[in-house]
Amino acid sequence: MRVVHFVTGGFSGSTNVAKEIIENTNQTSDIESILVLRKKKSTTEEKLKSFRNLGIDTRLVTGKLHILTIQQLYRICKEYKPDILVVHGFSEHIWGRYAGLLAKVPHLIHVEHNSRERYTWLRLKQAKWLSQYTAKIIGCSEGVKQNLLRLGFPAEKVISIPNGINLTRFDPSIQVPFNQRKAEIIMAARFARQKDQTSLIKAISLLKIKGIEVKLSFAGLGKTSHLVAAQKLVKKLDLEQQITFLGHCTNLPELLAQYQIFALSTHYEGMPLVLIEAMASGCAIVASEVVGVKEMFVHAEDGYLVEPQSPQALANAIERLLADKDFTAKMATNGQNKARSQFSLERMAGEYKALFRSLCKTQ
């Protein structure tokens, strides 16, 4: 069977999920897949080349006008003749399904990658209309699935396939033992409206007032305005000796393995891959209790959940994790075991392959 995956060219989490599914499914004898990216400002030739070097047939359509996006994807579908078109993320899942309908692709699959997408009443109406021609609507976590149901998508078509990662990059046997790591915090995330680095910075300030001067590193770039605002806040709160901005980091598994604590302060999520990566790296997790995150953990057993947008709650959690080393180390071990048992690429890709095969059997 032939499968086309259509996703943003912004190289976000949804792009990586599509890439990982294609890499895995292309190793099977009965599934052949290609990747189509909708061009963004951040879509560079270097990034495209990195995907093509992995053996992924990667193609590009314009992101300037919706009608042109639909037209160009339609042409690719007419030429490639896929059995299945998988459209990832908002608003690509709308334009992708229009193209799939026009090209008469037998099976359309909509994958939702976030719990809070920018649906206007018109976009939601379009998505619901398209759902009648869609074989399955997938939430990348149980929380995202429940949100799709709340929005009114057809219950008989909505399922969840939780995200997974390639765990071979996170071999526990070569990781630094927990008690030999830096008793510091790292947050790896882009600077954007979705994330809440501000609350984490304020939490570090609250701890400093109590005489606890813990160091924090931010890995990642993002929107310049959000990054600059965070840097200004660090300077305003006199935290420049404690908080470091690492910028873009390519060696994430090695970087995460140096820290005892990983923090994700965020406003909303789908199912963040970086949290799974931090768990697999053996970090103790403290994270905002939002949809897409809270379903991943048993509080204080394999992760520590805190009230969203609360610097005080974050400060209290960090203080406990720093003070009780045995508790923190055990939580990190439990989280690592959960990542390996529940959030593997093999499990995620296996569920997608089973779905693809079941759909094509019904043709």
TrEMBL record:
Pfam families: Glyco_transf_4, Glycos_transf_1. Residues 65-169 form the Glycosyltransferase subfamily 4-like N-terminal domain. Transmembrane segments: none annotated. Gene3D superfamilies: Glycogen Phosphorylase B (3.40.50.2000). InterPro entries: Glyco_trans_1 (IPR001296), Glyco_trans_4-like_N (IPR028098). It comes from the Bacteria. Keywords: Transferase. This is Glycosyl transferase group 1 protein. It comes from Paraglaciecola arctica BSs20135.
